[in-house]
Model the fold of this input.
Amino acid sequence: MFALSSGMPPAAIAVVRISGAQAGEALRALAGRLPSPRRATLADLKSLAGAPLDRALVLWFPGPATATGEDLAELHLHGGRAVVAAVETALATLPGLRRAEAGEFTRRAFLNGRIDLAEAEGLADLLAAETESQRVQALGLASGHVSRAVAGWQDRLLTLMAGAEAELNFADEDDVEVGDAVARRLIAGMGGLADELGGWLARPAAEVIAEGLSVVIAGPPNAGKSTLINALAQRELAIVSPVAGTTRDVIETPLALDGIAMRFSDTAGLRGDSVDTIEMIGIDRAKAAVEAADIILWLGPPHDVPDHPRAILIAAQADRWKGDAAAEAAAARCDLMLSAATGEGMDRLHRLIVEMARTLLPREGEAALRQRQRAALGEARDWLRIEAGSREAGDLILLAERLRLASGALDRITGRAGVEDMLDTLFGRFCIGK
Done:
C-alpha cells in the first residue's frame, strides 16, 4: 500500500510512504535500484513507461524493524501538487500496490506488534492535539507511559498467579509454600495492587484534557456575564443588553489559556421571578451547566454562590460601583474585582482560572487514562479487591480465578485480547497515509 504521509501540497517537501512485501520492488521500479538500508539517497524517479517524475530523496527500510513492522520505503518529493499526483499515479499502476485506507499504516504497526493499543490511541490524540496540555498528554500515551505501567502490573500479577498455581498443583512438594500463608500473601499482594490501580483511577480523565475543561460563567441577570465572555473570547460572541433575560440559552466557545483547552459558557441569568417560559428553560439549562462545570465564574452576590468545589467569586462591573461603600464592602468578600469593559482584573482572572485548572490536570510525569482504559482498569481493581473474612479469602481456586480475570482486564488496555470490536473505530480516526 502507499499514501501521501505528509501535509497536503503545495509544500516544500512531500513524503510518500510505501509499506508491505512489495515495497522494495515498487522502489526499484521507480528509482531503478534499491538504495542502502536506512540511508537517504538521491534518485531520479521514472514511471514504468520511462517518463521522468521527480528528482527525490529515497529511503529503504527492510522489515521487521520499521514503523509498520513490514518492508517500508519513503519517497521525499518536491511538494507540488502535480509532482505528488504524478508519483501516486505511477505507483497505482504497479502490480500488487494500492492506495492505503485511513489509519492503515498505524493499524499494521499494531497488528505486527510494533505498538500496542494504548500507544495507538495516544498517537491518534497526538495528531488531534491543539493545545500544549493535549500534546503533552498524548505524547505520554504514544511513548508508552501507560503501556509500561500495565506491563509492570502484569508482571506482579504473574508472580501472584504463579504462587497460586504452585500451591494448587504442587502442594505435596517440600519446597512449595502451603496453607493459609499462601492465601494471606496473595490477598496482601492483590490489595496492594488494587490500591495502586485506584490511585491511577483517581487521576483526571484524558477526555477532560482532549475536550477541554468546562468553565461556566454564572450569576443573576445583568451581572456582566455576556460582557465577560466577549472579553475572554475577544469578539462579540453574546448579545450585551441592559434588558434582563437577554441571554436565553447556554453560549459556548472553546479557548486555550496557557496551553490548557477550555470551554467557556455564558448562561442565562439565574432568578426565580421570571414568567417567561423560554427564559425559564434557559435558567434550567444554566443550572444544569453549573452542576456539570469543572470551574464556575460566579458574578453574583457571594452569599448566593452555588455549592461547588471550584468557584471563583468575581465582583464584576467594577467600573460602575467603585466609590460605593456598600458595594466595595461586598466586593471585599470576592476573589477579585473585575471590569470586563475596561480590562481591570482580567489578568488576575486569567491567572486564577489557570491555577485552578492545573489542579484538574495530571501532574508532571503522570498520564491520564481514556474512558475505555479507565473501565478496564476499574474492572481489574474490582477483581483484586477481597473482603476480609469472605469465603473467597480462603479459597485458592477462587483467588486464582480473580487474578486471571484481572489480568484479562489489563490485557484490554494494551490490546492483547478482546479488541477487535474497537479497531475500526480507532484507526478510522487517522488520516490517509498515517
User: Anything to note?
Assistant: The domain at 145-203+367-427 is CATH 1.20.120.430 (Four Helix Bundle (Hemerythrin (Met), subunit A)). The two ends are 12 Å apart (CA to CA).
